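So, is this right?
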Amino acid sequence: MYPRTERTTANRNRDRIDYQRATAHAILDEAYHCVLAFTVDGEPRALPTLHVRVDDTLYLHGSTGSRPLLAARTDDGLPVCLTVTMLDGLVYARSQFHHSANYRSVVAHGVAHLVTDETEKRAAMTALVEKLGRGRAADSRPPSRKELAETAVLALPLREVSVKARLGGVNEEPEDHPLPHWAGVVPLRLTPGIPVPDSGVTAPVPDYLRPTYSPWLTATPMRGEHVILEPLDLPHVDGLHAATGDPEVWQHLGNPMPRSRDDAAAIVIEALRAAHRGERVPWVQRCAVTGQVVGSTSYYEVDETRRTVAIGYTFLGRPWWRTGINTEAKLLLLTRAFEELGAVRVVWHTDIRNDRSQRAIERLGAQREGVLRMHRQRPDGSWRDTVVYSMTADEWSTAQVTLRERLHQGVSTAA
């Protein structure tokens, strides 16, 4: 526990103050940025910056030419006040006076010093990079001696620290309760979006930047003799656009044929956004022989509770039809669904006009269940009837034998 001092003792709302080290450390570790307040030449300054905690020292990143870091060069150091705030919710009351916010905050007072030891400085910068993504330090180039010299690091020992937080619901006057106004809490949270690669990046998004989902919503890489399935990513756009530039590929799909790279990118981004929402699990298909990107496929309508999943959003470049690639992709997806995830039912949906797709699904061993009338709109605006097929867990043992025999014999069951 941090000691209570005159500067860390609250004048009001004392029930919200905490001095537990573990609580303060958790907030500092969760937050990515802080505000550093100090005075220079008698003038107040407050600068936002990145920080990282290593044990009981907080390290702050900056430029060697910045005012606070210049002031921290002296033996006396730089007296500072550092704050971190995590906003957790907006509190709406019936009365305007009692509107508030739920939050967790840390205030640290102390004297910051410039880090001059190169080993400590490198360790602090590595820790900061690791905070952005565990494993990132090994997945990026370390700073050169010139870059290290141009970067300044402040060290603030955590000695005088307090935590303040507001949790819970609305606090207001009892006489306001009958008022006909909505009251309650709107939760807030910081959530990462879809990683956007820089121009020219061909490396896939690293695992530490991907959301953590259940296995049902995770695009686990899979490999067979004909096809490799790997998580769909933006660097696959060029390969998909080049491989699927044939109108027949898109004839019965939910998207019109992409006419440009931007159109193809929009399709991939749509899939990634659905994956980010937990609505799809998209893979890219590569030829196992050449490594070339040839198509894409997905899980969707994933219901872990009822142990069901659908396979679809599949498109494959025409040169690879009847090569065994799509057949083996379905085998890999079905094996994962039934044997790894424990699914009891796998579903397919296809346009009633798409006879080729219906025959291919039937050759997989799936059973036709019926037709959903006016189920979806086609790209041209017309309404399509959708044929529904399914395979259940008790049918899988027979179906997989048939699929493996067809692949062994070089017979394609799905175009």
About this structure: The two ends are 66 Å apart (CA to CA).
